[in-house]
Amino acid sequence: MLNLLAISGSLRAASTNSALVAALASNAPAGCRVTIYGGLGRLPIFNPDDEGERTPREAAELIDAVTGADGIIVSCPEYAHGVPGGLKNALDWLVSRDAAIAKPAMLAHASQRSLFARAALAEVMRTMSFALCEGGIEVALLGKKPPEVDGILAEPVSVLAMRNGLTAFAEFIRSR
């Protein structure tokens, strides 16, 4: 059983990115379990002086979750052509750790327009030595309200896209 950790880079209650990672967890193919990381908003701002024995509990929980996962899925919105600060902060807590080194990772997108954030996030994750799986998953949810989002994520074409993306990611992980 592959254990995948999904992280939404959005803290919004009605986040399409959070809805997407929840749908990924619900639609995981056989042999995969997707767990959602929910601590993004509780992480303190990264400070290298607080590493080691001084690592805050919330950061240690993130580090342990990433270390224990077979692969990471990240879905994030684009804010001002960039990666949201909360997600970047989470990644910063992993920089000096072994958790990211060669860890398989895949991006999932709820907006077809978030091209700047995608490029920035991919660059950050490659720099951190994540093994980034090309392709990823995209389900167009931009501008949709929660009932519409739920409907789109339940459509057979969306379910198939999510399962196919997760299956491709699982194959990527197993081939490493």
Distance between the termini: 16 Å
Structural class: alpha/beta
CATH level 1 class label: Alpha Beta
What is the level-2 CATH architecture name? 3-Layer(aba) Sandwich
Tell me the CATH topology.
Rossmann fold
Low-pLDDT segments, ≥5 res: none
CATH homology-level superfamily: Flavodoxin domain
Strand content: 15-25%
Query: What is the element string, with H for helices and E for strands?
Result: EHEHEHEHEEHH
The general outline is globular
Organism: Mesorhizobium jarvisii
GO molecular function: FMN binding; oxidoreductase activity
Protein name: NAD(P)H-dependent oxidoreductase
Pfam family, one: FMN_red
Describe the structure.
The chain has one domain (2-174): Rossmann fold (3-Layer(aba) Sandwich), CATH 3.40.50. Helices cover 42% and strands 16% of the residues. It contains six helices and six strands. It has helices spanning 16-26, 57-68, 85-94, 115-127, 146-154, 156-174, and strands spanning 2-8, 32-37, 71-75, 104-109, 131-132, 137-138. Strands 1, 2, 3, 4, 5 and 6 form a six-stranded parallel β-sheet that branches. Strand 1 (2-8), helix 1 and strand 2 (32-37) form a beta-alpha-beta unit. InterPro entries: Flavoprotein-like_sf (IPR029039), FMN_Rdtase-like_dom (IPR005025), NAD(P)H-dep_reductase (IPR050712). One of its GO terms (cellular component) is cytosol. GO terms for molecular function: FMN binding; oxidoreductase activity.
